[in-house]
Amino acid sequence: MELEDEKKGGEASGQTSDKEMGLSRKNSDSSFSPTEDDDEDEEKKPQLGPMIALKEQLEKDKDDESLRRWKEQLIGVVDLEDVGETPDPVVKILDLTVRSPNREDMVLTIPDDGLPNPKGPWFTIKEGSKYTLVFNFRVTNNIVSGLRYNNTVWKTGVKVDSTKAMLGTFSPQAEPYQHVMPEEITPSGIFARGSYSARTKFIDDDNKCYLEINYTFDIRKNWQ
Fold it and tell me: Model's pTM, two decimal places?
């Protein structure tokens, strides 16, 4: 959710990074329809072999101590209660948190219907403020490989940022995982203020989407 300081004259910065919600000079007429970047992801999808249920992999050669230790080094110690009979991993994004110094954390719970706040902005953040975005998520059933975060932001119908960040590969476990993004600073100035629309997706190496949400947020002169 990176938001960079705006240049004089109302121009947005031309830099795009692997963080969330930045402002970029690279504009397009994109909406919530798939972008060219999304198409590239589909074309670059690797051709992998058939998936095997993690439980089957763990139980195979379970009497071989050396193999058991080797598997634990690769995937860690897995709680079999979090492992199912099917090969597909299950990833549930529990919440997104916006942290800003000297402010109470804004914990944004993910609704079941994927509509955070259809009647208004999901959150508001002050211009020129430092912030950090934190993801909490849980993985069950099987290993998820190459989980990544994609975020696209529009202002007045024009795409101002398209960001991708790799979160990593995760084994099933009872406790949630937490990923903390680098600290950023929201832009400031009259042209930076206003309402933004965004689409956030969490997908893996197989381009399986675990969460896609569309929402709006505001940048204001003061905290609300």
Answer: 0.67
